[in-house]
């Protein structure tokens, strides 16, 4: 990886110089030029998708940037589309595949070829992709073409080719696989055309499935009953089917902002023994809509002095774990100091996450333990005031 990095860095510098020439030509949205300045990962994705061939990468960036300006990608909102188009539910994001990637659904039977609405439909695809890319920082997704009950009147080759171009050119390194569900036999020839559009390497991402095979890629949890699944989800609008966009969390939602309730600590005078037992058990569980966290109960027991001594929660949002508070624990002043504080860790992936906890007292000892969090579980760690340093590292 170090060798690859040494090859990529000079090319990024070259691109950085070349983009000044691009900007003068007034071909692109200035926001994309600015991002090219600041986001090396974005450039890396273009390079990776073009096998680290710089000339091809530059052509791809040029084509992508022109498309982004033509479609005004940065400015697309719900109001950019007729409500009827959003009501139909032919295109939306919902659920996750077995690898934890978001699923981008195309319900082909709800699509009708119409030249009058073609451009709007293409913009709708761009809207969802850009919305997801910004919220999930470019994390790849899986496309599902649901072709159940589809006829020839629903097939629009120009639209399909556009969708493929979105992943081949406009959103590089953004596609994990294309799952095609129940392709009608009369469309086998069309399938070969699509494979040719993708190219030999990308064509390996195509997965033809039926009701018996689709669970090789997506669990029943995120498949509707007609696909052999158990997902009771039904598309409706409004609101947009955001599905939180973050990888699955407990239904009660993550701790997210500095403005949330200052619920941090339980009264320690009457609950020392109980708290110790609960802290050792760590009380990890998968939440659902009918379950409520003990947060509100703890808030009711807050001592006013403790409440005033502490700041609002902040949260570090990593790709694997959300950690709250983000950086520091506040035990209060000498006069109001608490004996312990809480750290809340939330697994935001579809996989089990292993993380390492180091705690130390300067010059005395360092202790380490390794813990695991299953999908959607929340872990509460109790930290006592004699611990001065607390480090968290997470990896799959």
UniProtKB/TrEMBL annotation:
The GO terms this record gives for MF are:
FFAT motif binding
Q: Where is the composition biased (Polar residues)?
A: 278-293
| Domain CRAL-TRIO, first and last residues per copy | 81-235
Q: Where is the composition biased (Basic and acidic residues)?
A: 263-274, 294-304
Q: Which domain of life is it from?
A: Eukaryota
What are the TM regions of this chain, as residue ranges?
A: 364-391
Give the UniProt entry's GO cellular component terms. Answer: endoplasmic reticulum membrane; endoplasmic reticulum-endosome membrane contact site; plasma membrane
Q: Where is this region: Disordered?
A: 255-304
Keyword set, alphabetical order: Membrane, Transmembrane, Transmembrane helix
Q: Which GO terms describe its biological process?
A: lipid droplet formation; positive regulation of monocyte chemotaxis; positive regulation of neutrophil chemotaxis; protein homooligomerization
Protein name per the record: Motile sperm domain containing 2
Its source organism is: Laticauda laticaudata
Query: Which gene produces this protein?
Result: MOSPD2
